[in-house]
Amino acid sequence: MILLDRVTKKYNRYGPALERISLHVEPKEFVIIVGPSGAGKSTLLKLLTREEKPTSGKIIVGGIDYETLKDKEIPLLRRKIGTVFQDFKLLPNKTVFENVAFALEIVGMGNKEINHTVPRVLDIVGLKGKEKRMPRELSGGERQRVAIARAIVRQPRILIADEPTGNLDPKHAWDVIRVLEKINRFGTTVLLTTHNQEIVNKLKRRVITMQDGNIVSDRANAEYHS
Amino acid sequence: MNVRRSAIMFRRIVRTGVLNFARNAWLGIAAIAVMVITLTIILFSIIANATFSNTVQTITDKIDISVYLKDEVTTKQQDQLIAQIKGLENVKDVARVSKEEALKKYREQNSDNPELLEAISQTDNPLSVSLQIKPKDPNKIEDIRGFLEKKEIKAQQSDETSYSGDRKEAIDKITSATSFFRRAGVAGVIIFAVISMLIIFNTIQMAIFNRRDELTIMRLLGASTNFIRGPFIVESIMYGLVSGVISIIIVRAIFSISAKTFEASSLGLLDINFSNQYFSNHLWGFIGLQLSAGIFIGAMSSLIATRRYLKFKTSR
């Protein structure tokens, strides 16, 4: 599903953010990427969503070779990958429903289908009945679940979650993680970065540990101690 | 399916653009104001140009050369003379005014002066037959003059030929004024068009800046370039449309006020009535022109602005 082959990313002058990273993720896997700030986790995810281009190396996601990907094809790529961010990135002047519907509007889905699809996805993330709320009226955990609903509403095969629990208290963090597990059970490949040891250790999933732009360990059912 | 999807996208782009326009109306005031000025100048230039041309045409039509013939010149000779004059290159038309017609005209002109009327009676008509020559180009009557001054032609004439010389000077003045105003109009249109494009450019840049978070999110969610860009272009087209309507209203108002204020129809060279008439006759054409000029200016500047400020390239 995801293949990185000796990928290096250098920002100007400073040392490389990623150095010859090779990684393979199978379909339907749930992979947690851990490591201290500046280890290169976010850079890795940005390469996958094509916010950044690698300095060298090969990236293939869902059969798409990024080397031959044209700039104008990037939107099409992003529609196949769901993304969740630490700061939610919700549109503050749109309701919960509108925020989720937005992801469908920009790909040209008809209003009828949107009205049919969005409530079902909000149900999955446990926000049934809050369709008309504004983001500012929601707790952090609820906001993040809106963001997850938006990310999965197009049924992507890959979901990338960059520190989705970073701004949340433990209870809300677990709400979000449960939703991610649920989505993974439906068959979506999940890539999660986090700092939260407790979450990593309880999930017992494949854990990739990064440090200084390198992968220092990659183990199944692993625990993590910083 | 694809057509349907495109239609949905198009509707959403237009809807978003119109909504954004309504929300950012205060931001667009400067853009609209300067665009109104531009469009109004365009409209005035066209109308003024038409009015000046009309004035020139009217005066030119009045210019003619009158040749007065002696009574003893026979009708046959008159016909010969007319044929000869018609053969000249710069002659548009020759009309014969008979003694009776001349008398009739004289009476009309002096209807309020009984003494002058009495001086001339039907039986004793001292007025001559005359030929009214209309030149094609009133600036080049030298040929005609040369022909009329020939000795044998001169011999048939009762009075001095009358050239509308003073009128020619007036025409020259109007013509040079017209070409000056035309050039000034073109320069004004260009200058203001550039200014309004710059201001719209700025407005769109500000709108992009205000909405940068939203745009980032749209981009991360995989919105296409056109879907992000479209609403901005629609928004600036709205500036153009609103400005076009306002400028038409302004010009309309100016004409109705000035028509009332200057009830006399003519202000020297500017025939307000003609301008007003011209504007009314071509109203739909002008509305079309103003709206399309507005759309053009708006779309052009936002195309450039979005190309410049919405970066879609990823860094390597």
**Overall strand count of chain B:** 6
Q: On the 0-100 scale, what is the average pLDDT of chain B?
A: 82
Helical residues, percent of chain B: over 70%
Distance between the termini of chain A: 29 Å
Total count of helical runs of at least 4 residues of chain B: 12
Q: What amount of the residues of chain A lies in strands?
A: 15-25%
| Shape estimate of chain B | elongated
In CATH terms, what is the fold-level topology of the domain at 2-90 and 156-219 in chain A? Rossmann fold
Rounded mean pLDDT of chain A is 91
Write the CATH architecture name of the domain at 2-90 and 156-219 in chain A: 3-Layer(aba) Sandwich
Q: Sum up the overall morphology of chain A in one term.
A: globular
Strand content of chain B: 5-15%
Q: Count the strands of chain A?
A: 10
Structural class computed from helices and strand pairing of chain B: alpha+beta
List the helices and strands and how they pair.
The complex is a heterodimer of chains A (226) and B (316).
Chain A lengths: L1 E8 L8 E8 L4 E5 L6 H8 L7 E6 L2 E2 L8 H7 E4 L11 H10 L5 H14 L15 H13 L5 E5 L7 H16 L3 E5 L3 H7 L2 E6 L2 E6 L7
Parallel strand pairs in A: 3-8, 3-9, 6-7, 7-8
Antiparallel strand pairs in A: 1-2, 1-4, 4-5, 9-10
Helix pairs in contact in A: 3-4, 3-5, 4-5, 5-6
Chain B lengths: L1 H22 L1 H38 L2 E5 L5 H12 L4 E7 L1 H11 L4 H6 L9 E7 L6 H7 L2 H4 L7 E2 L1 H46 L1 H9 L4 H37 L4 E2 L2 E2 H10 L1 H27 L7
Antiparallel strand pairs in B: 1-3, 1-4, 2-3, 5-6
